[in-house]
Amino acid sequence: MTEYGQGPGSQPWHPDDPLYGDRDAYGGQPAGYQDGWSAPPQPGEYPHPQQQSYYPQEYYEGTAAYGYGGQQYDPSCGAVGADPYGIPHADPYGMGERPDYYAQQGGYPPPRPQYLREQPEPVPHPHAAPQGAPAAYAAPQDAPYAHPYPYDAPAGPDQGTGWDPGPDQGEHAFFTEGGEDPDRQAFLDDPDDEEPRRRGGRDGTKRKRNGCACLAVTVVLAAGVGTVGYFGYQFYQSHFAPPPDFEGSGKGDVQIDIPDGASLSDMGDVLKREGVVKSSRAFVEAADGNKKAQSIQAGSYVLRKRMSGSSAVGMMLDPSSQNGLIVAEGWRAKKIYAEIDKKLDEPEGTTRKAAKSAKLGLPSWAGGKPEGFLFPSRYSIGKDSKPADVLRTMVKRAEAEYTKTGLEAAAKKTGKTPEQIITIASLIQAEAQQDHEFGKVSRVIYNRLDQGMLLGFDSTINYAKGRSTLNTTVEDTRYSSPYNTYLHKGLPPGPIGNPGHQAIEAALKPTEGNWLYFVTVKPGDTRFTDSKAEHDKNVQDFNAVQRKQKENGG
Asked: Which segments show compositional bias classed as Basic and acidic residues (predicted)?
C-alpha cells in the first residue's frame, strides 16, 4: 500500500458508489483511477471514500475521520481504521467504533466531533464555495479550513476582516487585463492603499494613472527623439553641410585685432564674435581655398560687418584695402608717432600731442607715459581713424599681451613691479640680436642689479640722446641724463622702447648663468662672460671690427 492509499487490486468498491461496476483491467479500479489516485469529481458527483480524495489534507485536519483510500486518519496519530491486512488499529481517543457515514442518506460529510465543535468557529477561507452552489461541491461548513472550490468560484466577504475580494479573485482574475473588474485593477495598481482596493476603478483613479503614465512615456520619448535629432542635426551641420555664411562684401567699418600666434580657426572665431562673418568655419574654409591666406599676420584690420568668408579673407590679404602700419619690436614712441602722422596725412607732431592729452587706457602703473605700452604688431588704419584711436588700439594690444603672460603675478615672483619688467624687456629688446641671446642679456641685467653694478648700456645713452648707433664714445658716457646707465645705478626711469612678446618673456624668465658682461663683436657674435679681463679683450675685438668697417667704407 502506498502512503496515501492502496495500489491496484485493493479492497472492492463500495456497492453504493455511483461508479460501481466501472472497472477496467487494473484489478477492479475504474478507468482513470490508478495507484490510489483520482481525478477531481465532476458536477453532480461526490468523492468516494475508496477513491483518492480530491480535497487536500488541510481540509481534513481536525475532523474526526475522513477517507484516504478507505482509511480513517487522525492528524496526531496517523492512519487508523481499516487495514488491508485485517489488523485493527487502536482508537487513540477511545471513541469506539465509528459509524459508516457514507452508508446513510446525506451522511457526507461526517458531523464535526464534539471536542472540535467547542472550539471557536474558524474564519472561512477566501476561496470557500459561494452560497447556492451545488451541495456536492460545497466545502464542509464546519471544517476548520475551507477548501478551494473546484472551479473559479467567487468568495463571500471575509468574516474576520469584512473585506470582499470580489468575484474574480481567482486564477482567471490574475491574468486578466483589468477591464472586467476595476476594483481588482485598483488593488493591483496600489496594493498598499486601502481605498483604491474598494473604489479605485469607480472614481476614475485608474484611468487618471494610466493617462499620466502614457503622457510621461510620450514626453520621455519625444525628448529622446528631439535630443537625438538635435545632436544629429548639429553633427551633420558641422561635418557635411555648408557652413553658415553671409553674402557680399558687407558694409560699415569695424576694427579687428588678431592676436599673436592666432591660427586661422582663432581668426575665424574673432571675426564671428565681432560680426564680420556668420561662422568661423566659413572663414576657415575660404582661407583653406586661398594659398596666400597663410601669410595673414597678427595685427589690426579694418573690415566690414556681415562679410562673406571669402570677402573677409580677400580684404585681409589686399594691401590696397588696408592702410596698414607695422610697428617693429623695439620702436620708440617717437618713431611710432611719426609713422601714424604719415598714414593719416596729419601734420607732423599731431599724434605726439594726442598721446599727451588723450586718454589712451594705459595701465595705472605706466606713469601716464605711452612709451613701452604701444605693442609692436600690424595695424590697419581706416580712412576715418584718428591718431588717438590708433594709439588706443596699440595700448589695447599691449594689455592683451600682459594678460596672456600673467605679467603682474609673474613680476611679483621676480621681486619686480610690472613697470620694471617692461623696462627690463625694453633693454633686452634693444641689446639682444638673436633669439638665444634674449635670456642671457636678461640674466646679465639681473646679476648686475643684484651686485649693485652699473648697467653701462649704450642703448640707454642712445635713447637719452634720441639716436640709434653702435658707436659710443667716452664723452657719450658722460652725457647728463637719468637714462644714462653709465652714470646712474639701477634701471632707467622707464622703458626705452616698445618690447615684443619674446623680450617680455625673457624679462620674466632669465636664463640661468653667472654672466656680468656681454658685447656684440659683430652680427651673430655676441660674447658673454663673468670675467672683466675677458670682457675687455672682447671689447678690443669689437673696436677692431669697427675700424675695419670704416676703412672699407662700411
From this structure: 14-25, 195-204, 530-539
Place of cell 601734420: 347
CA distance linking residue 532 with residue 321, whole number of Å: 55
What is the enclosing helix (H) or strand (E) of 388? helix 387-405
Residue 318, C-beta contacts closer than 8 angstroms, at least 6 positions apart = none
Distance separating alpha carbons of residues 48 and 54, to the nearest angstrom: 9
Q: Which of 301, 322, 343 is the last residue of a domain?
A: 322
| Helix (H), strand (E) at residue 342 | helix 333-344
At 297, which CATH number?
3.30.1490.480
DSSP class of 488: S
Amino acid at 38: S
CB 150 within 8 A of CB 136: no
H/E segment holding residue 521 = strand 517-522
Provide the CB-side half-sphere exposure for 70 (13 A, CA).
Answer: 18
Cβ–Cβ < 8 Å for 370, 333: yes
Would the pLDDT of 365 be above 80? yes
DSSP symbol at 529 = E
Find the domain containing 263 and state its range. 251-322
251-273, pLDDT tens digit by residue?
988 888 888 789 999 999 999 99
